[in-house]
Amino acid sequence: MDDHSSSASPPASPWVPLGILGGVLLFSVLATATAGFVADDVGLGLNTVAFTEDIDGRRISGPFRDVPLVRETFAAYRAEGRPVVLWLGASQLYAINDPEPSDRLAVAFAQDAAAARGSDSAYVMTASPNSNLHEILCMLLAYRQRGLRPDALVISFTYDDLKEPGIRDTALELLELPFDDETKALCGPAAAHITRAAAAEQDADADAAPIERTATTGTPQERLEDELLDFLDARWPAYTHRATLRSRAITAWKTPVTRLAFSVLERPKQLVPDDMRAWNETAFDALLALAAADGVPVFVYKAPHRPDARVFFHDRQAYDDCHAELRDRVRGDGAEWNDFETLVPTELWGRTNEGAPDVFHFRVEGHRLLGRAVDAWLADHGY
Amino acid sequence: MLFNSWGYILFLLVFVPLHWLLPHRLRTGLLGATSVLFYSMWRWEFSLLVIFSACIDYLASRRIHRSDDARSRKRWLLLSLAVNLGLLVAFKYTYFIWDNIRLFGAEAGGDWPALQDLGVRIILPLGISFYTFQTISYTIDVYRRVIVPVPSFVSFLTYVTFWPQLIAGPVLRAGEVLPQLEAERRLRWGDVTTGLALIVTGMFQKVVLADSIAPMVDEIFAMPAVALTALDTWVATFLFGFQIYFDFAGYSAMAIGSAMLVGLHFPDNFDWPYMARSPRGFWQGWHISLSSWIRDYLYLPLTGQAFRTESTGGIGVATERKGGHQLRALFLTWFIMGLWHGAAWNFALWGLYHATLIALFRVLTPLKKLPDAAPMISWLLLLLTSMAGWIPFRAQGLGDSLTLFGKLLTPSAYTLGGRQADMYTYFWTAVITLGMALTWWFIKRPARRPWPSRFANPVQGLALAVMVCAILICLRTAKQFIYFQF
Fold first, then answer.
1. Domain count of chain B?
2. Chain B nearest CA to A79, separation (Å)
3. Is A175 within 8 Å of A142 (Cβ atoms)?
4. A245, B2: Cβ pair inside 8 Å?
5. What are phi and psi of B322, to 5 degrees?
6. Has residue A188 been placed in a domain?
7. Do A221 and B7 lie within an 8 Å CB cutoff?
8. Residue A126: domain span
9. pLDDT digit string (tens) for B16-58?
10. What pTM value is reported for the model?
């Protein structure tokens, strides 16, 4: 037989194996060097870091994933006979700009303030980035469905998050679905929104399943791949940091690129669409209805905003009108309203990843001010 | 088995050295056995289907070759076609056919249940569209007396099941592969280093580029089609065009590179399709082996022209002959090409869209002359039209496809206000487009490269190092190749 492979054989290059080996070494060095990078902090802004809060070994604050831990704390406080204040909101509540490791969140300062004035009120908090009112409703339901009904409910209202569409699966996973009749009746359209979102999430999983199955799910390859990944994680320390390195790499190019893109084309004004606001207001009605049914006083405040910055890419008039309507609705329902917009002075705020003034996140002193202000407000009402 | 996995890397590390350690007479058998193992890593029972298909074609081709009776030869050919196409239709098109019957039935007042509701569950065997075409071409080539059937069933089975091309092509002719399988292959380090470089480059295209573009594409196409502006639609189509290119060209590079590791040479399957200046040029650069197959086994026979015998050159053919006969053949070919890609009308729309483009460039004199008269304008026109052609491939059904085409053709939809895709996505679309053009400029014109030729190899080594590092960061097996679903 002829040798059919000989004529077209390309010249050998030692640089190919050297390059492959160099790539593996480069990965090992970079992965080891970036092991300490915290990916969760990337979206919060320059030098702004996510914190959880523990007191006496008990988790009193965290994002959605920490709800089970915070529920344990809630139950423990309740067992001790302490009044529990449940504080819900978005990233402002768990992020600190320019932090020291020993810095604390507003919820801890509120707890301290309560203790200092001789109150045994205990604050617990759940906050997640860009939480819209449906997700805040999910947070409340995550406690309520386990029989944990707070003695007071504090809601941080962030206008910007009204435009956030949908309900994340991390929020939906906290719930026991389907809802019982009482919850359905109290939550009205918001219950239907949540149920529909959960069904859509399931459908999405079902839709994805055939493709996944075609690829690897449930196949011998999947089992082999799991074994190999376990082996690599156990024997190659750098490989365990690959997700961290990936986050670091994305941040390294995404931030400058985004800055450049926004300098070429100005970011457009992103208004809160009327239908999105109306959709979210059904969740707010549900929050008030649930609290009223449980006899829980509700304290809603307008979230602090950086005083020297224009209301970030929003229409000031729409911003003021929305808060005025919300205030009237809250008071009309017998709940409490407070305006903390200018509570935190300019010098305590950070900057966004794009270098612009950050209107959402502040330093630890801002948390101190907010925690004390909330506790003082509740103290006025006997907590 | 997916190429973009640690399992595949282990597979190569074990079986490539073993292949070269074995005596020559056992090497092809090992390739056949490992190919069945490779397929069985998905579902072993479907490997029996591939073997069955191969048995039918092995038997039919030998009978065809032996016989001088035209009727007998035709009968064996028809048997082979019926079995292969029957399996393809049964597994790939049953839902589609039944759904359309239901649709017509509903018009007539009938109310028939969906097959899924009757408990019918059909799993599409991986690669069936590809290996079916490969076995059909073998039998037809024997029938045409282009090749003689291979005596060894092991060699034939290895040709059909050979792992690099089993799942998603390239669709190769027996005349290109079988002589290489039968010959004594020698280990050549040039093959090994080139093969490794192709595997790394292909995996980089898939794992780093295609899989990074995918979330941006998914985000835009998840929005209601009516909400998108024309510019959003362009961004979505460009990004999907790049995603599917990197996905499939990456797969092909890995397939060709893997074959080189065991001393087998496959022709190129992609050649800068987005830099083409005519539809003909595009199809001479996109999925070349499939478009060449369609050319030789469908289009040219329909037009009465002489077929070719290699999976090179794509579907671009000379068009000296004129008349409605050719146009009918063109549209029929592309209609079938569309449905080959997927059992849905939007794929047929995709095929007819490309047939229309080709026909316009053939019929309209200004367009015919454009590639030579104004290459840059011709390139831009082709880039826009070929990217827009991906809409039916990715949109959610025929309705959304037509809505998005409508956006592109509506002047008032060209506005930055009300855009749904974020500026970051717009920015990356521009960067990738420019990056592609610049890369083509350097690669196609080595004299204009910014480094001296003596540094070409070190530059390649450096590029591979960066690619390997990026692959290790991004490698996630869950992301399958888009063309697997075809």
1. 2
2. 45
3. yes
4. no
5. -125, 170
6. yes
7. yes
8. 37-219+270-379
9. 999 999 999 899 999 999 999 988 888 888 889 999 999 999 9
10. 0.75
